[in-house]
Amino acid sequence: MQSELAIAFSQVTEAAALAGYQWLGRGDKNAADDAAVKAMRAQLNRTPIAGKIVIGEGEIDDALCCI
């Protein structure tokens, strides 16, 4: 079970990184954040786990959205 979760969370990280990467060099940090968060949320929704996200970085850097 733990290795399955590790793989699942690696896929979440990968999805967010790939979505944010598409905005690299465009000078729009908020769009990159938004794309990464949406991809992360979508991948988490496909992950067969039950839980609640209790932290996000939005307050730290005034991101438009948090998980």
TrEMBL record:
Reaction catalysis annotation: beta-D-fructose 1,6-bisphosphate + H2O = beta-D-fructose 6-phosphate + phosphate
Gene Ontology BP annotations: fructose 1,6-bisphosphate metabolic process; gluconeogenesis; glycerol metabolic process
Enzyme class, first EC level, given as a word: hydrolase
GO molecular-function terms, A-Z: fructose 1,6-bisphosphate 1-phosphatase activity; metal ion binding
EC numbers, comma separated: 3.1.3.11
Pfam assignment, any one: FBPase_glpX
Keyword Transcription regulation: no
Keyword annotations from UniProtKB, A to Z: Carbohydrate metabolism, Hydrolase, Manganese, Metal-binding
One cellular component term from this protein's GO annotations in UniProt: cytosol
Family, as annotated: Belongs to the FBPase class 2 family.
Protein's recorded name: fructose-bisphosphatase
